[in-house]
Design goal:
about 230 residues; alpha+beta; Enolase-like, domain 1; two-stranded antiparallel ribbon; 9 strands
Length: about 230
């Protein structure tokens, strides 16, 4: 076959599968629909599980900036071309499990699902999927770092006469402190409360939530864990 046969068939992204990001750090970038990727893989190779499939190699939680916790999924993507089964194509996807928002900390119980979709997109990109977007016809979140590098290399802007710095003001304590973070059980909806382990040592809610995600894939209370 032509070495670029697959690449050329999946490089273009239709307009209905592209969405402009209107806010946040990625404002002005292009988001590609995850379901379009699934549809395209199915059109080219066949149904998932027969013509193409993936194997989850690892999923984990890692501490992010400040109080945030990130979720990551590693996969190997496979596809069948004629009678040939491909070698594994690795993909690493990420999302946020605990995010710091304006009103406090937010826990996303879909973080591993979103990280899995991201991992599939990374692996499929190696086949050429969405290449026209990633190569610069449309900006994506992956172009942000290149844009930052280009501005960092610009010469400094000449400065005029400097005004004396304003007097230092004493910082005041915030009027509205952030609310205490909490977690709820994904099964019974009960709010989790701190407790002590078998040795009498206190167990933090965050440590409990991370351990529950590792064992069960969701946050559960002590009563629902044995179930």
């Amino acid at each position: 076959m032509n070495n670029k046969e697959i690449y050329d068939n999946i490089r273009a992204v239709p307009d209905y599968a592209k969405k402009q990001i209107d806010s946040g750090r990625m404002k002005g970038k292009t988001d590609i629909s995850p379901m379009w990727r699934i549809e395209t893989l199915t059109e080219v190779f066949g149904p998932c599980g027969i013509g193409w499939w993936y194997v989850i190699k690892d999923q984990r939680l890692q501490k992010g900036a400040g109080e945030e916790v990130k979720a990551f999924v590693d996969i190997d993507l496979y596809y069948k071309w004629g009678d040939t089964v491909s070698q594994p194509i690795p993909g690493i996807g990420g999302n946020t499990f605990i995010a710091k928002e304006r009103n406090g900390l937010y826990t996303d119980d879909d973080c591993f699902k979103k990280a899995l979709s991201d991992a599939i997109s990374v692996a499929a990109k190696a086949l050429g999927m969405g290449a026209d977007v990633y190569m610069g016809c449309d900006p994506t979140k992956y172009t942000a770092s290149r844009e930052q590098e280009s501005t960092e290399n610009l010469p400094p802007i000449p400065q005029g006469p400097q005004s004396p710095p304003p007097p230092q003001r004493r910082q005041q304590a915030p009027q509205n402190p952030q609310p205490t973070p909490y977690f709820t059980c994904a099964h019974c909806g009960k709010k989790l409360v701190p407790y002590n382990d078998s040795n009498g040592r206190p167990v933090s809610l965050r440590a409990h939530a991370e351990k529950s995600m590792q064992l069960f894939g969701e946050v559960l209370c002590l009563d629902c864990m044995p179930k």
